[in-house]
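Exercise 7b. Backbone tokens:
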């Protein structure tokens, strides 16, 4: 059975002073950057540490693992939190029993969990299949939203365009979404996001797209947002919050499901496209990179 990550970290802290110099460097890196270690390949981790890949394998074997993948697995598992739903909710009860701030936080956290759960429960697989098919088959998939919802549209487009190169965020150049819909046709798709109070600009864009014969996918907090607004597929979300604005945690969860489907459908082409994007960004210096860790002097 794979030991929990915190047990591994405790062991690494206990044993670092007794390891050979290069294993000390690898150990210190893992202690300082467990998230990166869970994500990166063995080659990338070795480059960041400044050692050979064999050093990481030796450390894995020292700790009782068969190899790198088995060693990395608990760190990766912590990142994806694939066992979160099986964990006890005692932490909420304990939080609620605290002071006023802790009790309020428990209430807010419970609300967001309910919003996400309700939004995902309402996500009918048949509608998802139709929505993803419309988007992936369209030469152009135009994504639109305004004001607070724009952040959702921006993220969905930012990630989604790597699966579907024809995905575009509108409006561009501070204009109207209708300006960008003028060049769209019946084979194209509009993906619109709006929640109460509904955006007049988004409603106009949906109506205009329908007039041009485009297919429309709508993400909203209601099946009916305004008269004369018809979508081919409407995905409803919960937006209940404990403050004056809508909660977007449920919307974000639904968008993540849609993105996962898009990447799955596009397969290897999407995977290689992401790799190309990442390499181009790295070559352009878009990401901050820490300096190589100094060698850890071996104690005499």
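Sequence design result:
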């Amino acid at each position: 059975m794979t030991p929990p990550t915190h047990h591994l970290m405790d062991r690494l802290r206990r044993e670092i002073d007794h390891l050979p110099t290069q294993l000390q460097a690898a150990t210190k890196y893992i202690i300082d950057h467990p998230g990166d270690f869970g994500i990166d390949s063995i080659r990338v981790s070795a480059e960041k540490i400044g050692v050979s890949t064999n050093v990481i394998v030796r450390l894995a074997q020292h700790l009782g693992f068969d190899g790198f993948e088995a060693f990395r697995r608990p760190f990766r598992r912590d990142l994806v939190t694939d066992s979160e739903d099986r964990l006890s909710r005692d932490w909420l009860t304990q939080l609620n029993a605290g002071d006023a701030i802790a009790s309020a936080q428990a209430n807010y956290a419970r609300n967001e969990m309910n919003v996400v759960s309700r939004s995902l429960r309402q996500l009918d697989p048949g509608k998802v299949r139709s929505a993803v098919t419309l988007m992936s088959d369209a030469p152009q998939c135009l994504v639109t939203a305004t004001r607070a919802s724009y952040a959702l549209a921006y993220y969905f487009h930012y990630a989604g365009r790597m699966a579907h190169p024809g995905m575009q965020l509108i409006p561009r150049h501070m204009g109207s979404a209708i300006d960008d819909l003028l060049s769209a046709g019946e084979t194209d798709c509009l993906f619109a996001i709006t929640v109460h109070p509904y955006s007049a600009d988004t409603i106009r864009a949906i109506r205009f797209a329908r007039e041009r014969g485009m297919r429309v996918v709508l993400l909203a907090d209601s099946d009916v947002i305004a008269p004369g607004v018809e979508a081919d597929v409407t995905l409803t979300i919960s937006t209940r919050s404990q403050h004056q604005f809508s909660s977007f945690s449920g919307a974000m969860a639904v968008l993540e499901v849609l993105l996962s489907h898009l990447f799955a459908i596009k397969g290897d082409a999407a995977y290689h496209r992401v790799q190309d994007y990442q390499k181009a960004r790295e070559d352009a210096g878009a990401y901050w990179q820490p300096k190589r860790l100094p060698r850890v002097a071996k104690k005499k």
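Instructor comment: The CA atoms of residues 105 and 293 lie 38 Å apart. Strands lie at 141-144, 167-170, 189-194, 215-220, 233-236.
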